[in-house]
Amino acid sequence: LCADIKNLDNATDSENGNIGADDDDDSSYFEVLDADLGLGTGKIVTGLKLYDNNIHGIIPEELSALEFLHLIDFGANRLMGSLPSSLFHKFKHLRELYLNSNYFNGTIPGNFTQGLTKLKVLTFGNNQLTGTIHKEIFTNSISLERVSFESNMLSGSIPDVFQKMIQLRDIRLGQNKFISTIPASLFNSGKTRSEGATRSLTKCDLHGNAFTGELPGTLTKGVPFLKYLYLHDNRLTGNLDTELFCGAANSFIDIRLNNNSFTGNFKIQCLMENLELISLASNNLTGPLEDGIGHKLPRLREIHLFDNKLSSTIPTTIFDPTNLTAILMYNNQLTGSLTANVFNGASHLEHLYLNGNKLSGKLDDFVSAKGLEALKKLRLEYNSFSGTIPDFTGMPSIEVLYLYNNSFTGSLNADKLPPTLKKLKVSNNTLNNEIPSKLGEFANLEVLSLNGNEFVGKIPSELSNLNSLQIFHLQRNKLSASIPVQFLPAERITLL
Question: For residue range 229-286, what is the model confidence (pLDDT) as tens digits?
Fold first, then answer.
């Protein structure tokens, strides 16, 4: 194949037409026909796109015959073996090299990018590569704009050599085995913004490694355009000072620092008008939530603060962002009650997880909120809510309602439950009287947990109409009589 394509290089226009990039190409090439080639259009092959073609084997040495290639895309195939150490040295004009999603193994040769001074894109992601990254990979190609080595088995520390890589826009090294600290030069060009040398970095993904230490003090100092910062699932420590984010406050869209060991209070230090998601879950954050948090994050869609040690009442402004869809603050030490005025503007909220806190009081006022029509999942288990289970029909979209392990009393009234329910758990309360037979009309119900209460009487035979039911928990009640014959046999149901 490579030999045949090489012959095309030597063909005339009249014989073969234009062999270079098509007129309708999506501009994947960088300066597809350089003036420095001096060969004119139709005389050279500049791109080789073989993405997702089930090609297997090794990269042939004959590929080097196509010395004027600008783009090589072998991604999503079944190529294997070690990466060639010198094969690509001849491609002096190469801009983009895609070797991702194959079966390459072994180490990345230290001289792999030798001579590739024009290289803009280098992707090795989703292979089986091991070993360390040699600094020459980056210093030989300081014009790199995108680097993608994610989902391999690379280890060691990342070379701290990014000082001169001003054009770097996207670096993805997540899901490897990197250790040590995060290199400070990745976020700092060494010059101030006034000197016009700030880096163009918009995405940094280092998640799923074993990085240690604190966040670099230069974070966002030289990267004012940073939009996506993924440092979750590492071993980072230290006091979390969110002022570090302020250098890119107007650019950030997504910040994920969850599953580390950060400490300190959670407080937003500056207006971040474009931020849509922030995840600081599963750290060791403490202290109260600030009252004005929602005003500083006007476009927020999701906030993940679960599995920390946050205390205080829930600030009312956290529900102010009009596009908010998810608040996940379970397993903290939040106190107080839930009132309707807090939620009246949360018209897009779909997921509200407040379970595992110290919330208390009745829910009657909460369910009267006018802004929760979109709510699909409400988790309030493991708190200290009391009173009777109120009328949830004002939340017509609810599919998951978890109220177990609280202090609810009285009857369970099926007329006060929305028919959209798929999962209902009210176990380990003090509910009494009979199980309502009307629950048999909830056609979408998959999980029904009524255990650990004081229900009496018979198991309604109407519940056998629940064709979607998979889990049915009834243990530790005061029920009488036998299991209705309609339930037997019931291979689809876990009946306890």
Answer: 999 999 999 999 888 899 899 999 999 999 999 999 988 989 999 999 999 999 999 9
Residues 6 or more apart whose CB falls under 8 angstroms from that of 391 comprise: 367, 413, 416
3-state helix, strand, coil in the chain (%, to 5): 15, 25, 60
Closest CA to 402 of 344, 352, 366, 465: 352
Percent of the chain with pLDDT over 70: 87
- Rounded mean pLDDT, 396-422: 97
DSSP-based three-state secondary structure for 236 = strand
- Whether residue 94 contacts residue 116, with contact meaning beta carbons closer than 8 Å, is answered with yes
pTM, full prediction: 0.89
Using CA atoms of 293, 297, 298, 302 in order, give the dihedral in degrees to the nearest 10.
-100
Residue entry with tokens 């690379």: 154
DSSP label at residue 377: E
| CA–CA gap between residue 146 and residue 442 (Å, rounded) | 51
Joined together, the tokens standing for residue 221 give 């100092």
Instruction: Report which of 307, 439, 422, 324 is spatially closest to residue 376, judged by C-alpha positions.
Output: 422
